[in-house]
Amino acid sequence: MDLSKVLYLSFLLSLYLCVSPSVCNPRRRRKDKEDTGPLQRAITYTNPLVPLEFWEKAKRKPRRKHLKIDLLLRKMGQDFDSSWMSASKPQKDLKSVVEISDDQVAELVEQVSDLNLKEDLSNILSISPFNNESEKDDDTKTRDDDGEPRIKEEIVSSKDITQMANLLQQWLIKKSSCPVTYKWKDLGEYFWPRWIRMGSCTQEKSGFVDKKPNCSWPKGLHCVPGEALTLQILRWHCKRRRPHIGSSKRDRPMKCKWYKVPYPVTSSCKCDCKSKKHF
Asked: Is this model's pTM higher than 0.70 or not?
């Protein structure tokens, strides 16, 4: 084949391929891939690899094209959890109190069972002043009509002690439990989803908010955040493009995009002596 024909066919092939901008423009190809697939996590909460310094308010707000639900859902991928986040304001913005989990109850029951409450109560009642007074009763109260010795009746039966121990166990478990109060929080327009379900260890009693509920007797321990659940959400961030030769910092245009960042929330509360950071 003539060399001129080969060059001509190569030229036509290049024109055909360049009909799609993403083929001829690698930067556009990377952008298309980014828009259609889930974003990689920028950093992890426990081990930050690429720390980002976010401004409290970005230089440019996300536009309507940046807020398309289907696009943002693709960026979130499997990190979107409807039980912890919402793209729109929840219809019922009511606080919900969730009691401690079954695992925490089982742990408290095991700890209370190790106290041997039945044995301690039996020992306390055996040396109580009521029993001492019964021993001081005259001899006529300890004999029947025929003069035979009569066995004294137990002041507190074994069944009563068991019931008392069970009630005391229930009281200790209830006193040591720390429920979580959940409410929806609006993070603002620079986050997506902007509504996050936040957990708190505070309790309301008669209109008064107790920020550190007491959970022990004697007092000293308080309900503080326990485990933290790390959510992955999108954060809008703007930064200036790389400078060109002879250009100043102000002349550089802004480049804004969504980043996937960790966001910790309190998922459980526990009774502890040290107050920890409340997410």
From this structure: no
